[in-house]
Amino acid sequence: LFSSGSADDVPSLATVGYIGARLIATVPDRRRLQTSSDCLTESQYEGSERVFRWVDVDWSGELEDDELQYMMTTLGERYYSGMMDMYDADGSGGLDQTEFVTAICANGLTDANIQSLFNAFDSDGDGYIEAGEVQSFYTNLGFRRAIPSRTLEDMVKAVDANGDGKLSYDEFAYALSMGA
Predict the structure, then answer these.
(1) Residue 130 CB: number of other CB atoms within 10 A?
(2) Roughly how many angstroms between the first and final C-alpha of the chain, as a whole number?
């Protein structure tokens, strides 16, 4: 359904998690719309560009309502119907990359949205995120090519503080809060 990319074009687990957790806030904070350039590191911004390209199925350069709805459902959230109106600054009917970043940055990073995203990754509900669940999540988000096992393991290892090969909620939350 969504556009393909190469394994070299995969943003880190922490970057996708950070972006996702900020997007799924229930009530966006309109006061933060002016500060969007300050909320993402360079790496996170590059990751947001990759996520944007994955979700932009028709390669129009804008996320239309159906694309945005699919992405939010994949993140484990009901689609917020006012999201398009709130962030579509130019009134085009879709979110361009700048408007997408504004939507990311308008939402705070809270325990509730980190937990919701963790649950979306943890597909078997055992309280841990493992490499196979990362692959499933990325596939559901729109990355259609298989990510090499080694890459998936490295993505988990990068934020696996205790070295057990899987991520607990605390490890996941810490990585996101640090903007890894």
Answers:
(1) 19
(2) 29
